[in-house]
Automatic annotation (TrEMBL):
Family the entry assigns: Belongs to the glycosyl hydrolase 10 (cellulase F) family.
Primary residence: secreted
Protein name per the record: Beta-xylanase
Ranges for domain GH10: 17-356
InterPro entries listed in its UniProt record: GH, GH10, GH10_AS, GH10_dom
Source species, domain of life: Eukaryota
Positions annotated as active site in the UniProt record: 278 (nucleophile)
Reaction(s) this enzyme catalyzes, per UniProt: Endohydrolysis of (1->4)-beta-D-xylosidic linkages in xylans
One GO CC term, this protein: extracellular region
Organism: Leucocoprinus leucothites
BP GO terms, sorted: xylan catabolic process
Signal peptide range in chain numbering: 1-18
């Protein structure tokens, strides 16, 4: 009933107040957020909107917490760029999602070409994850409110707040699309042992943060989603700490899986939380009114799916503006994937997100 009343109150407010993280919280979620990266933090208008907690009460660092950025040589750690993003989030009272501890990509050469044996590589994984998560221990926190008043005024300095911890993508993209394990240097050397080692090391470093396995193409049911479910079930049976499944949701306009909501619920039925971690919905350029209208409907579908699954705790867009989207540089001829355009103007997709939380 409290959630329903909150949504009704927000629906009665002027449009300017009905912003994305406010609506997410009113819908019973922890956050709505955006990814970011260090190079764009010199763009003052971009940073101003990124720090607008009415839209974004969570941030994910895109690159500067990855292995090549944090342990470029064995045993030598650097956190300078990651700290910039962490400090930015802290200054705004935003959640900070750690991304990521172990991934097959963006690895320094000493890891990929080290020819380490099983025991040594597991020790390296353990040390990397423990050191990285320890450095940011207690920094993945958010200020959140017990009433709508501070959300409306956007002035939390004189109200009582609660503190909650957020999450780490501990293991990123461990699967092939057919549900088999990716042949990374970690899997080739240790089998699946590196996954449990990474999760245990992260838990030891920060028992209060939520530990996730994160992957793409697990939005709908299928072989890859089954592989993820089987892995999580096995980890839980072994007593390995695992709190959540990250569903990246790099999607295509007009092609949102019809089984998205059911698949989120299937994951939740494993006894973990789920999150939409890297949402964007790309189109073949140029953008047209028809494509933008379909994109609005697609964003609404994704948000509504998260809203409908109680264990879906929040949604992060993979940067909020087309100006800094990764899509054009990766998918030739495609783009316009984000809710704001390259001039930082809201697109119809923004209204789709609003509709997803409120309808």
């Amino acid at each position: 009933m409290k959630q329903f009343i909150s949504l009704v109150v927000l629906a009665m407010l002027p449009t300017g107040y009905c912003q994305l993280s406010r609506l997410a919280i009113a819908a019973g979620k922890r956050y709505f957020g955006s990814a970011t990266d260090n190079p764009e933090l010199s763009d003052s208008p971009y940073v101003a909107q990124l720090g607008n907690t009415a839209d974004f009460n969570q941030i994910t660092e895109g690159n500067s917490m990855k292995w090549d950025a944090t342990e470029p040589s064995r045993g030598t750690f650097t956190f300078a760029n990651g700290d910039v993003v962490a400090n930015l989030a802290r200054s705004k009272g935003q959640l900070l999602r750690g991304h990521n501890c172990v991934w097959h990509s963006q690895l320094p050469g000493w890891v990929t070409a080290g020819n380490f044996n099983n025991a040594t590589l597991l020790s390296i994984v353990q040390n990397h994850c423990n050191t990285l998560v320890s450095h940011y221990r207690g920094q993945m926190c958010q200020l959140y409110f017990t009433s709508l008043e501070p959300m409306i005024t956007n002035s939390p300095s004189d109200v009582t707040v609660h503190v909650t911890t957020d999450s780490w993508d501990v293991v990123n993209e461990p699967f092939n699309d057919d549900g088999t394990f990716r042949q990374s240097v970690f899997f080739q050397t240790t089998g699946t042992a590196y996954i449990a080692t990474a999760l245990r090391a992260a838990h030891d470093a920060d028992p209060n943060t939520k530990l996730y396995i994160n992957d793409f193409n697990i939005e709908g049911t299928g072989a890859k989603s089954t592989g993820m479910a089987n892995l999580v079930r096995s980890l839980k049976d072994q007593g390995v700490p695992i709190d959540g499944i990250g569903v990246q949701a790099h999607l295509i306009v007009g092609a949102v899986p019809s089984t998205l909501r059911q698949n989120l619920q299937n994951f939740a039925n494993l006894g973990v939380e789920v999150a939409i971690t890297e949402l964007d919905i790309r189109m073949t350029l140029p953008a047209t009114q028809a494509l933008l209208a379909q994109q609005q409907r697609d964003y609404q579908t994704v948000i509504a799916a998260c809203k409908a699954v109680s264990a879906c705790v929040g949604v992060t867009v993979w940067d909020y503006t087309d100006k800094y989207s990764w899509v054009p540089g990766t998918f030739s001829g495609q783009g316009a994937a984000c809710p704001w355009d390259a001039n930082l103007a809201k697109k119809p997709a923004y209204q789709g997100i609003v509709n997803g939380w409120t309808q």
